[in-house]
Amino acid sequence: LASRDFHPDNTVIKIKGVEIGGDELVVMGGPCAVETPEQIDEIARLVKASGAQVLRGGAFKPRTGPYSFQGTGVEGLVMMAEAGKKHGLLTITEVMTPEYVDVCAEYADILQVGTRNMQNFDLLRKLGTIQTPVLLKRGFSATYDEFLNAAEYILAGGNPNVMLCERGIRTFEQYTRNTLDLAAIPALQTLSHLPVISDPSHGTGRRELVEPMSKASVAAGANGLIVEMHTDPDNSMTGDGVQSLFPDQFARLMVDLEKLAPLC
Ligand code: PEP
Ligand code: MN
């Protein structure tokens, strides 16, 4: 079902007037984690003012260590839904377990499957039973074939609204957090009809590389971007402040992107 051989036309996912996978670019911006109502409200205001269409923010955070901040949970979902509604933005948030799929789908417009859960088959199967769009992140050591098979689980369950997200893979390089695989963008679009979104934030782990890799992703044909932005990155509650854009950088990036591709 994920293969272009059996589905020649691009899949276009329509969510409240925003079309993902068509000729226009979608940009999802926001913090790594939803922290407080004030934080997410202010960031939502800035995301909207910059012209992006979707507010990102994690309420359930998959942290490498068990003692790190694990997210604000259902309270975070509520905070983000309110900010999204107030500022007229779609919302995307990560879901980590099958049990939380329904509550996350109640509050968010798009559900994100993180890189660490790309092969959480119970989660994928559960996501196949609903119609809420899913942004499936590539596992950091997954081949294209494994990635498309993970998407296949969701599609096979009956949910056709899947987008693929390249977020960088693990290589020998240490300077960058991950190696953003730009070739994955056109390769996945050749193999599959599903929209492809690029995540230059996790794909590089370095703020100064986000702008060039965003532009490179669009040049490579990405249907959209998911970018971390924070009003106070140095004090963000996850370690991802180092890769988060400042609001003025995000706004400038949006101006530049509009020259490369029309926005939704
Ligand atoms: C995130 O988007 O904040 C995140 C945890 O992403 P990934 O699963 O790609 O590491
Ligand atoms: Mn993050």
Automatic annotation (TrEMBL):
Keywords: Transferase
GO molecular function: 3-deoxy-7-phosphoheptulonate synthase activity
KW Transferase (keyword) present: yes
Domain DAHP synthetase I/KDSA residue range list: 11-256
Documented EC number(s): 2.5.1.54
Protein name in UniProt: Phospho-2-dehydro-3-deoxyheptonate aldolase
Naturally occurring in which organism (per UniProt): Paenibacillus allorhizosphaerae
Gene that this polypeptide is encoded by: aroF
